[in-house]
Specification:
CATH architecture of one domain: Orthogonal Bundle
Strand content: under 5%
Helix content: 40-55%
Number of strands: 2
Distance between the termini: 24 Å
Radius of gyration: 17 Å
Oligomer: single chain
Shape: globular
Length: 204
């Protein structure tokens, strides 16, 4: 069988410090390496875990993901471990507290969106995780061609666009198609580890 063509401008899986091939973005810092090897693409099936990743992806909008990773412990402390019931009960005093917390991203719109999204999550019959995983079989989801290079990884898909639309219908915000797709990747609903990466297919 011939090797698949590599799209122009894309990068293949590259060797890491231990010689194993990885997605090239993972090699930018130890934080990225740990996140790639231990978490990214590992299936998350609990509501709290999905909610945390959805929130963090929303806070990342316009920023480096490395910034979010390095502040993650602070985010967890500030948002009660992303307990949906607790965050849904946040009021004006909590918003003021969060705006004064230098350990997180102090963006009022994103903070208030996280609270609204917790409230919206609480109202989903069957839970947030079931809703998100319901998009695993949408065309261009996990059954699409495995990416050989970074050029083959989209920023959004029909699945993430449909998920985004459903989340907005239920009252969510800061959950556009790109944020929704990043959440699907992070939670293992899709496997976007490159062909050749030692984590590709590791959780299937």
């Amino acid at each position: 069988m011939s090797e698949p063509a590599v799209p122009e401008g894309g990068r293949l899986a590259e060797p890491g410090p231990d010689g194993r091939l990885r997605c090239p973005w993972a090699l930018g810092s130890p934080d990225y390496l740990d996140y790639h090897d231990g978490e990214w693409g590992r299936p998350v099936h609990d509501d709290q875990g999905i909610f945390e990743r959805l929130c963090l992806e929303a806070f990342q909008s316009g920023l480096s993901w490395l910034t979010i990773l390095r502040k993650r412990a602070n985010f967890r402390a500030a948002f009660c471990g992303f307990d949906i019931t607790a965050v849904a009960a946040f009021g004006p005093a909590d918003v003021a507290r969060l705006l004064g917390d230098a350990g997180i991203v102090r963006n009022r719109a994103k903070i208030e969106a996280a609270i609204r999204n917790a409230q919206a999550s609480s109202a989903i019959p069957g839970g947030l995780a079931a809703l998100v995983w319901g998009y695993a079989g949408v065309p261009a989801g996990p059954d699409r061609t495995a990416p050989v290079s970074t050029a083959q990884i989209p920023s959004w898909t029909p699945a993430s666009k449909a998920l985004s639309r459903e989340l907005r219908r239920r009252g969510f915000s800061f959950t556009g198609p790109v944020t929704a797709y990043a959440t699907l990747q992070a939670c293992g609903v899709v496997d976007d580890h490159l062909v050749g990466c030692f984590r590709r297919g590791a959780y299937s």
